[in-house]
Amino acid sequence: MPRALIAPAAEQVAFQEYESPPLSEGQVRVKSLYAAAKHGTEMSQFKGYASPRGRFDSERRIFDYQGEGVQYPVPLGNMGVGEVVELGPGVTQLKEGDRIFAYGPFREEHVWPETARRLPADVPWQAAVCLDPADFALGAVRDGHVRIGDAVAVSGLGAISLMVVQCPPHYRPRPIGQPARSSPRLWSRPRPRPHPMRRWRRDQEGHRQPRRGRDH
Q1: pLDDT in tens, 85-96
Q2: Which of 129, 156, 176 is a domain's end point?
Q3: DSSP element (H, E) containing 138
């Protein structure tokens, strides 16, 4: 039986055998080759201090914490790259031997839809498993309505933040990166002109927020 990597309890790791299900219409069986964790989120689950986000408050633009903490066992892993070893009924977009990547935990076999992305020959697997943080980074840049000439402050330089810093050059702003609080270093690119003035409002907690995009 194939095995998966799990956290059976806080700060514990173990392999667990699982049944690999039969393939349904449009599915493929994939042998795992490479995988990666989502280090920030999964570390909080592994150590036991993660908490559910709860309901999203559209007025305050934050999640309203509700519920209990981590419920073990927890699967570990976030994205994987693998080789197609079996085709399900009706699969036409992939063939055996294709390398594809998708979301999934650390496990020896996956059952993925044939719509999983094929790994291009010139793309290393390390780049493929970074799609998740890159997706969130691009979402932050787009939701933040970054415009040409804007200065973008990035607090903390984890995986997503580093990719946020790499996204803005396509928008031509002036990024400012700030390392973790434990480090006194601060790096930035030259800023040839002062920051533009913004209109501000106060949210329900009394904090000032810029009036941008859907905050209007």
Answers
A1: 999 999 999 999
A2: 129
A3: helix 131-143
